[in-house]
Write a structure and sequence with these properties.
The structure is a homotetramer. Chain A is α/β, with parallel strands linked by helices. Chain A has 2 domains: 124 residues, 3-Layer(aba) Sandwich (Rossmann fold), CATH 3.40.50; 164 residues, Dihydrodipicolinate Reductase, domain 2. In chain A, 30% of the residues lie in helices and 20% in strands. A 7-stranded parallel β-sheet of chain A has the order 3-2-1-4-5-7-6, with helices on both faces. Chain A has a 7-stranded mixed β-sheet with strand order 9-10-8-11-14-13-12. In chain A, strand 1, helix 1 and strand 2 form a beta-alpha-beta unit. In chain A, helix 7 packs parallel to helix 9. The radius of gyration of chain A is 20 Å and the shape is globular. At the A-B interface, strand 8, strand 9, strand 10, strand 11 and strand 14 of A face strand 8, strand 9, strand 10, strand 11 and strand 14 of B.
Chain lengths: 349, 349, 349, 349
């Protein structure tokens, strides 16, 4: 794979997932950005909207129709939900591979998807072939996929946190709990009142307790791991920071296992999952800006509550939870070393 | 009770609990502040340390020995742990009533206290008579108490959140979970690296998962409510905001109850507990600066997880979680209307 | 003036100025809130939008036409610019007094106003009689005013900061500089991208350097104080906090004066201006939630730069910079002690 | 220069400057980290203190005496002030080049330094030969220097902002004003009360108005540029964010110049200074994590204030204001392309 040889189009580059994807692609040695589309901002230099990209790209946003996406090797969708499902069939037909960072191809059950996303799905046949892009589970399939459904941010942190326990059959899968906290960038770059600094700063709240779209996505993944239906309580919270997800996971052990060894072994070959030493408390800033999930395993108050395990799992929602994982998937799909272009050090403080 | 007639001494007024107590007392119609002690800051006007008090008090910090605390009607300890236990016996003997906002008298089990607080207790006899100052549980005893142990911040939010469920015998008390998030002021006004803005801002982390001093305090309270030992997993987290605690509580129902009605009925007469409408998500800022616990009750994903209940409980850690509850206890002890001096509106935004 | 006797209507209570006004009015002993209007939210209980008001008011937003505002003693406009100018004439005719917290009546020069606010003014005759509501300058006129133009937030902090120097004729009024920093609530409760937490947090920027609407308002006030035209450079900045304005003011002295004495004397009788001791650095949080301007006067590096003075002036933009000053004006207009209902202590930390 | 061939020692790697330097050096293609010293933390793996470095370095902190610094090609001092001045003479004698990120060698006037830093200088002879490491001014001297005094954070932003104006002789250098705002990491990773999140968050304040150590450093630099003594008012402020400095600079023009052209021309060949388009307002986050100074030039209210210019200059205080500039200096000293290892994209949002 020679330098700058993968021709890449990005559909919808004006949101946080988009700018983060561009941040990673402009320094990726094999990525050749050819077009970034935006209906609303066509004509504007990308660097005018995102000044961190000044000097890194001269591209302007273009109308989708003018982007010649069918000449790309790979198209990323960094769009709202419901766009990729319309455009992907023609791209696939043209031989273009697709990574959708939105949710269009994440659920295998189209009816379930339609009930949560309040749309009729435009391409159920793509759903069928799409590969859920969690490399730690589906690496081989991703390598050959024409269409990859990039996982959601909460689902990435929760699934990677529960994975070893569930694969080992070590917990009661009827009473899993995921208490998750997200930075505000998870809500996207949309003008809304509840994510204004004056609303969301110096404040903490749960939201979507009765139901959140990421619940069925997580449940689908855990069910696949368990080989049987699982039941999960998922409580998302909004925390006053820009980036980061901290998932605190609770499960009841059904048999004795060496938890630390279990996790270390399962993730021994994974570049982008870091199992912390026993007793650690990973903080979200330790993964700020990098494609990494840090996990710590706890068995608290063992004397009094003999059967509970607590897992702490942190990611940067925009990187391992979105754009970084998308680049990781791209690397896998194009036969590159998986860490290509993902060698940043987290920004701390 | 005439105006400004309760003579009050405050021991240790240089921390956040101290300044918050002063904020409430300087506008309290019945409180006559007579002395504020600080060994380290003796001689400094209180308003020089806390400019929000400029114009509200001319008091200076004085040495404890110069404070004539034995002439007070009531002494608040807003000190580090281990001070009140030394000074309280003499005050009680002098007829002074005491509210300790620190932890010295919170545990009935002195041995347990000593193991968590790493000190030998100086006055076990006071422990025996001290009343745990959670008015919603112990109002009558508080009224007559000579010594009140003001509850911790986490314990207030968690106990008020679980109270109706446990009193009703409606949940499995062997597997309670309290996932709690606190603003940084909960760590106090101590110079420490991990609570610097550059460390704690734009970051989220759990801490003390293997064990936290508030766990046995909560367990003691829940056990008393349940009439039998309870088991609790308690996971505290640090969230990048100044004030506020959000406790997300999980329990398995053991019988069907009308949760909303249960909570509304239990707290119908409580001025400082607000049960939100069904489906609500209280935010911590809605209680910023006020003596109030807001609670919402959820039964999420009922179709899939039939037996789990989620309780959201928020307080301002410095008010209902510390100084405000202390003033509430003072009002009860001195026969005042319970809301005297506590009629602020939360500061929002 | 008996209890709860001033019948008050609030037009446009859904923004930050509105909720802050309500926070102050619900505990004001003489204010009887009779109507709060909102076209968009008619029918919604005010406390559903602003949970800090739960328990403090049962009012619902109503259509303006249903509000019977002409039966009020006083109507506050907490609306966007351009509303009060339309509704005020009829109210004045009906004998209702008006305080506009927006900008409609602040400029005496209607043409200038129209050029900055991009609207044709609907009631120039009201402009003529309206009194600029800066009590420290116009108290007597405010007492008798039918219409008060409540000052802007930046203009309050900058004018109070420069006032003593300019009245004393002590500075070069051709080269005044106001470098001002505001919290994000100053931008209002509007859904906009640039004030999202993910945009404005952990960030600092200037804006409006080429020109800002508050510049001519400040210049008008300073010109009146000076008795001659003044020239001012005004640089507003957005700082990542909710509330607060910090104005750093620079001027060249044209004669020697005892600066500290000058300021202390000028504001000796002002309840809501606090001149700090020499050498002090007021922080914005020291006035969080209260109707107060804190000022410190500096003469730095006197040996090297003999003629420069630096003034630090802080307010809470929503209180002394908006709703609190409006209540102060109401108190003056209705003959109440000026501090009625404004006796809060700043929330610190 | 082959890969990893510069043997590097870091003295004092436990502060923010230290960790930032390590972040940059671990991915620098020519830097071979051989030792990181810390008296207090000797034996601790660096990655245990700074989890963002987990997986990037196995180094442990060592005692200075065990570090074999005299075998290095280059030693960075990321220490408190007063260390480098003691250790540098021996290193220089051993043929080791030195970059001091602290202040020991910044002032040419040793007496002045001693009066501001309250220490007797241990090596005035090093002061004499040390080169002030602002590459945009002193590039050639830096290339040959044995000892480089890395500039302070405020001084970098202020000097780069004023430089073209002063070199062009276009402004009154008797009345320069620098109103500067810094994130809290500028205060370092020291346990202090005033930089706690609960103190510094949601707050804004000036500090050091009567005098700040960076004032004489800036004045020395501007004086050198001007060829005559300059007078400057310097007002630093603390703003509630982690990283970033925003300097707002004011000067009176003494002749007409095309400001935009002046700046663009002066910095045309500078990789790490970005002159923004006319009318722009650079935000600090646009340089978060990168070695870049962004500058915008304004001539506001030209009609009313004919002679004032306003310069906006932003940097990341830990990068272009400290560790990044140090690496830039290293690159120059060792004949590397100046941007080696400094090709990050700013993290936004």
């Amino acid at each position: 794979m020679s330098e700058k040889s993968i021709k890449i189009g990005v559909v919808g580059g004006t949101g946080y997932t988009g700018v983060e994807l561009l941040r990673l692609l402009v320094t990726h040695p094999n990525a050749k950005l050819t077009a970034i589309t935006s209906r609303s901002e066509a004509g504007m230099p990308v660097a005018d909207m995102f000044p961190n990209l000044r000097g890194w790209t001269d591209l302007k946003f273009v109308e989708p129709s003018a982007a010649a996406l069918d000449k790309c090797d790979l198209v990323f969708f960094a769009t709202p939900n419901g766009i990729a499902m319309k455009d992907t069939p023609a791209l696939v037909k043209a031989g273009v591979r697709v990574i959708d960072i939105a949710a269009d191809f994440r659920f295998k059950d189209v009816k379930l998807w339609e009930s949560w996303y309040k749309m009729t799905h435009a391409s159920p046949e793509i759903v069928e072939e799409a590969v859920y892009g969690l490399p730690e589970v589906n690496r081989a399939k991703i390598a050959n996929a024409r269409v990859v459904a990039n996982p959601g941010c909460y689902p990435t942190s929760v699934q990677l946190g529960f994975l070893p326990l569930i694969e080992a059959g070590a917990v009661d899968t009827e009473h899993l709990i995921a208490d998750a906290k997200s930075g505000v960038s998870g809500a996207g770059r949309k003008a809304e009142v509840h994510t204004l600094l004056a609303e969301a700063s110096d404040n903490f709240k749960a939201y979507g307790v009765p139901g959140h779209r990421h619940l069925p996505e997580i449940t689908q993944g855990l069910t696949q791991m368990a080989g049987k239906p699982v039941k999960l309580i998922f409580t998302p919270h909004l925390t006053p920071m820009i980036r980061g997800i901290h998932a605190t996971l609770y499960a009841r052990l059904t048999k004795e296992v060496d938890l630390q060894a279990l996790y270390e072994k399962r993730y021994a070959d994974e570049t982008f999952v870091d199992v912390m030493p026993a007793g650690a408390h990973p903080d979200t800033r330790s993964v700020r800006g990098v494609n990494l999930c840090r996990i710590a395993v706890h068995r608290p108050h063992r004397e009094s509550c003999t059967d509970m395990v607590v897992i702490l799992s942190v990611i940067d929602n925009l990187v391992k939870g979105a754009a970084g994982q998308a680049v990781q998937n791209m690397n896998i799909m194009f036969g590159l070393p998986e860490a290509t272009g993902l060698n940043q050090v987290a920004l701390l403080p």
